[in-house]
Amino acid sequence: MAQIVGERVSKGDAIVDYEEKVFDDIQAEQGEKAYIFMHTVPFEGSVGLVNMLTATRVNRKGFDTSIVLFGPGSLMASATRGYPKVGDEAFPGGLGYNNQLQTFMNEGGHVYACRFSAAMLYGMREVDMLEGVKPINPLDVLDAQLTARREGALVMQTWTV
């Protein structure tokens, strides 16, 4: 039988070094921008939520930050989420996408959602998107990437299928 080594941890114990930071804490310089492109299915993994948290952190570092949702990512902007009624959180974290996008927008971040993927693929209307989300033409997804390139912006892209 294997011998267990160490003491049992208690709630609140640190099991790794959370204090050491290896890289400099970079802050945006005047006018710097960031674009986070997400093509990911909500609730099919942690990618979408982690990218929203990262976008919020980038925004807090002073970057003019935009999230571009396309493909299944457009579903993250749904304002019709909830059960049994819209806005009801049927389980803890059930409105995590909505809450994080709202926090991001409240702090000055910009959110764009592809109206093609919303309507054609998922039957979601523009009025079904969270207030503050800007619906965009599907051709704008590429042009947003080209704009980011021209601006020399930080670009993060996540694709999941």
Describe this protein's structure.
- There is one protein chain.
- This protein is of the alpha/beta class and 161 residues long.
- It has a single domain, classed as DsrEFH-like (Hypothetical Protein Ychn, Chain: A, 3-Layer(aba) Sandwich).
- Helix content is 29%, strand content 17%.
- The chain has helices at residues 47-60, 96-106, 115-122, 139-151; strands at residues 33-39, 64-69, 110-114, 134-136, 154-159.
- Helix 1 runs parallel beside helix 2.
* Radius of gyration using CA atoms only: 19 Å
Gross morphology: globular
Number of strands: 5
> How large is the share of residues in beta strands?
15-25%
Distance between the termini: 43 Å
Q: Biggest sheet, in brief?
A: 5 strands, parallel
At CATH level 2, the architecture is 3-Layer(aba) Sandwich
Organism: Actinomycetospora cinnamomea
InterPro entries: DsrEFH-like, MSMEG0572
GO molecular function: hydrolase activity
Protein name: GTP cyclohydrolase II
Summarize the structure.
The protein is an alpha/beta fold and 161 residues long. The protein has 4 helices and 5 strands; from the N terminus they run βαβαβαβαβ. It has helices spanning 47-60, 96-106, 115-122, 139-151, and strands at residues 33-39, 64-69, 110-114, 134-136, 154-159.
List the helices and strands and how they pair.
Blueprint: E1 33-39, H1 47-60, E2 64-69, H2 96-106, E3 110-114, H3 115-122, E4 134-136, H4 139-151, E5 154-159
Parallel strand pairs: 1-2, 1-5, 2-3, 3-4
